[in-house]
Amino acid sequence: MTGMADSLTPRGIADAYVDAMARQNPAVAASLGLYPEDERQPDISPAGFDADAAHARTALAELDALPAEALADPAEAACARLLRERLTAELAVHDAGDHFRSLNNIASPIHMVRAIFSMTPTETETDWQRQIGRMAATAASVRGYQETLAEGLRRDLVSGPRQVATVIEQLGAWFEDEDNWYRGFAAECPEAQRPALDAAAEPAAAAIAEFRAFLRDTYTPAAAGRPDTAGRELYQRSVRYHTGADLDLDEAYAWAWTEFHRLEGEIRAEADKVKPGATPQEAIEYLETEGHAIEGVEEIRVWLQGIMDEAIEALDGTHFDISGKIRNVESRIAPAGSAAAPYYTEPSLDFTRPGRTWLPTLGRESFTTWQLVSTWYHEGVPGHHLQLASWVAAADQLSTYQVTLGGVSANLEGWALYAERLMDELGYFKDPGRRLGFLDEQMLRTIRVIIDIGMHLGLTIPADSPFEPGETWTPELANEFFAAFNGCPKEMRESEIIRYLGWPGQAIGYKLGERAWRAGREAARRAAEERGEEFDLKSWHMRALSQGSFGLDDLVSELAAL
Questions:
Q1: What is the pLDDT of residue 8?
Q2: Which residue from 124, 173, 480, 547 puts its CA 20 to 30 A from 64's CA?
Q3: Does 413 reside within a domain?
Q4: Are residues 245 and 319 in the same domain?
Q5: What is the largest distance, in Å, between two alpha-carbon atoms of the chain?
Q6: Are residues 289 and 318 in the same domain?
Q7: How many domains does the chain have?
């Protein structure tokens, strides 16, 4: 990895940290495509979290010991600033003990235990032998996390009851339900190795069942009656971790309401184009029953692949340069037991595992498409895939850390939402149904800012709101607000609320990150005009995609200077 030969620079220290974490945590190694021979599962016991934190402290101490001249190079200084901010934010989360109560439906530590199987190869007999080893290591990893949550009970650091109930339900889809994750995974195993995989899966399934029983019989009574919300102190800490900024949360909440009112007007106008005279909800119901739909799980996977392939062909050479391995992105169906929202997984460092978009089917066989086009611009191209694959391709020019572990959620999600808005600007939502889908997705991300901040901080609904003005936010009110002003189906809406409650501060990064990306582009455009130059959007895009990660504290100024 870049910088490993010279650890006495910020980039050298950063990349040594990446390597240390990859050796410590096999889930990190798997996500990067490193050390494929490692058959371990992540250590998510209290000792494992402490070991992760120790690597962060070592890297920070090495950074502190650097002489001033080591920061003379602006590229080195940028890497140092990112590394310091990220590790400081991570240690604040660790030292507060937030891992002792981390349960949510999309990204809690227990989810890494299953995710590692989708991040590691399954092409050869050797690959499958390693998967058998990982399956054999699963029980110890699961029991390690049970130990972590049990320690949280002893420290009175307990997750909320909604998150607990959701994870209990999800774990049933790993091994127990009729259409479970393991059945689909094992179906791809070579026949000769299947008995060994099944034998390894027995203790894994037993450990999951044991963990579910612990959550049901021990943890659930302890969580009963506790708030699902975080409170200001935990929330502010989590916001710093997810955004790379100490945000003015009251300003963000007020700004989101301004966006809500703007979008509500646009949505009403677009709904009338979908079906003259229809309200937004009536237009959505029309699209759900009469709009374009794809029948069949494999058929929707292929259709979504086509959306990304078409975007690559249309945007390459006009607004981006999309070449080489960056062009390779796969559409996949999410495994059983996933949360309801689509998601993306980045390519390995050597691109042997491509970037992948994932659609949870939620048991459906028929899929309306009015929302999915905008979502796949977000998850695929020009969204997550184009940014993260471009980062991987630029790792040699930056550092491995800046394009992997140093990623800031609000930067990533902000770019992906900016990508949706860009496609609207470029005229890719001429069909009123698809444009209503785009606007509905924008409203979704705006609602996230409102209810995520509102629920966790216990804020009141403003007087000019069309929904329950003066009331204090609760999860129940958030669900009603969601239903009234967004087209998410019920199961996804409920999954979203659980996600916000269990992952505080992450969901606000989409819209606030998009605001930063748009502000940075506008500042760069103005600067070009002041120099008497024409602003070259394609050139700006390519420079922006090659700069690596920044938190929101730095993102606007960095984009403005491009």
A1: 86
A2: 547
A3: yes
A4: yes
A5: 70
A6: yes
A7: 2
448 three-state secondary structure: helix
CA distances from 365 to 296, 382, 470, 534 (A): 5, 27, 42, 49
Structural domain range at position 308: 239-509
Residue keyed to tokens 């509102």: 454
Give every strand in the sheet of 343-345, ordered side by side: 329-333, 355-359, 343-345
User: Does residue 545 sit within a domain?
Assistant: no
Which residue did the predictor score with more confidence, 555 or 397?
A: 555
Contact 27, 116 (CB under 8 A): yes
- Going by their DSSP bridges, the two strands 355-359 and 343-345 should be labelled as antiparallel
Q: Is residue 526 part of a domain?
A: no
Neighbouring-strand partners of residue 320? 316
Q: Let me know if residue 326 belongs to a domain.
A: yes
Considering the domain architecture, whether residues 220 and 248 belong to the same structural domain is answered as no
Average pLDDT over residues 283-288: 96
Structure tokens belonging to residue 305: 């692949």
Instruction: Check residue 66 and give its pLDDT.
Output: 96
Q: What pLDDT is attached to residue 7? A: 66
Six token digits for residue 542: 């390519």
> What DSSP element (H or E) covers 166?
helix 161-175
* Amino acid sitting at position 411: N
- The tally of CA atoms less than 13 A away on the side-chain side of residue 301 is 16
Instruction: Output the six-digit token pair for 473.
Output: 């936010």
Instruction: Among 199, 227, 255, give the residue marking a domain's end.
Output: 227
Domain edge (last residue) among 204, 227, 250 = 227
Contacts of 271 (CB under 8 A, 6+ apart): 278, 279, 280, 282, 283, 284, 436
Proportion of the chain above pLDDT 70, given as a percent? 99
